[in-house]
Amino acid sequence: MPELPEVEVVRAGLAPAVTGALVLGVTATDERALTRHLGDGADFETRLTGRVVSAAARRGKFLWLPLQPRVGDGPAEEAVVGHLGMSGQMLLRPPGAAPERHERVRFDLAHPVHGELSVVFADQRTFGSLAIDSLVTTPDGAPGGYGWGEASVPSQVAHIARDPLDPAFSDVGFRRALARKESAIKRVLLDQTVVSGVGNIYADESLWAARIHPETSARALSTRAVNRLLAEVRHVLDKALAEGGTSFDAQYVNVNGQAGYFAHSLNAYGRTGEPCPRCGRPIVRVSFTNRSSHFCAHCQRAPRHRTT
Predict the structure, then answer these.
(1) Domain region containing 286
(2) How many other C-beta atoms lie within 10 A of the C-beta of residue 273?
(3) Which member of 121, 144, 233, 277 has the lowest number of beta carbons within 10 Å of its beta carbon?
(4) What is the pLDDT of residues 92-149, one digit of tens each?
(5) Which residues of 277-295 are buried (b: 16+ CB within 10 A; e: fewer)?
(6) Domain final residue pick, 109, 124, 157
(7) How many domains is the chain built from?
(8) CB of 128 within 8 A of CB of 52?
């Protein structure tokens, strides 16, 4: 599943192409892509046609395109909110381009500088989604997410925590949240209501870098360990962003269809049996709910079980 770096790469690619663009028309060829939309495909198409996109924004793994009001100059009250799911893609294409394989929705736009273009939402596994959603005020009064300066966020995203790269992210709040969690730290890192944007890949990489076993109780971590982990999460996310994200197959690509290359920089994730880059012992893989955890059993010592 695309995580923060992959979704941010897509957002950054969309921003210059869609900001200020007029929606000339929308074609929803597969309503499975609209499972979060409160209406059918015809409603989605009608409500978007003729609107102007204000920006391309992101919080965690969610994207949204705020829409200017139809009448007047007031603040945006609605947005197209999207989640890429397991294999969703947002692709920029010239007007009239042939349909993409697994194409679900197409937006035809007219940009004041770049002219006409199309944004295609393609999704092989159909777990991704698009919807028109209302914007609600952020409780902390800070901008809703990356690329969006207004203190608002789609209602479907309001429960999602800020991500570690967000200027409004609270390190103190994160430490307090962990102190209340008996759950394994890997599980907490994947909880999008605690910290957003981190999925299985970057959780494994951050825990490896911080030398923390994934089954360590969150509340058992010292303040120093939490600070070290948070620093490593940010470092891993920044590095992945610089390298265009992680692509293991053709399902994740940027808006131009190009793959990221952070897979070549992975230290733990997907490297079962390979030597740990730090100590040379083999990386191990264990089942973790419906996923797997990858770590070095030597560098990331298992937590001691309490005795009674």
Answers:
(1) 171-296
(2) 8
(3) 277
(4) 999 999 999 999 999 999 999 999 999 999 999 999 999 999 999 999 999 999 999 9
(5) eeeeeebbbeebeeeebbb
(6) 157
(7) 2
(8) no
Residue type, 42: A
Catalytic residue, chosen from 2, 143, 154, 164, is 2
Give the domain-ending residue among 111, 128, 157: 157
Catalytic pick among 45, 211, 291, 303: 291
Known catalytic membership, residue 215: no
271 among known catalytic residues: no
Residue 245 — left, alpha, or beta (φ > 0 → left; ψ -120 to 50 → alpha)?
Answer: left
Rounded distance between C-alpha atoms, residue 185 and residue 200, angstroms: 12
Between vectors from CA 44 to CA 42 and to CA 47, what angle results, nearest 5°? 105
Please give the model's pTM, rounded to 2 decimal places. 0.93
Please list the helix, strand and coil fractions of the chain in percent, rounded to the nearest 5, in that order.
25, 25, 50
Q: Which amino acid is at 134?
A: S
For residue 263, how many other CB atoms are within 10 A of its CB?
16
CB-based contacts of 19: which residues, under 8 Å, 6+ apart?
A: 53, 54, 55, 56
Q: Does 183 lie in the same domain as 47?
A: no
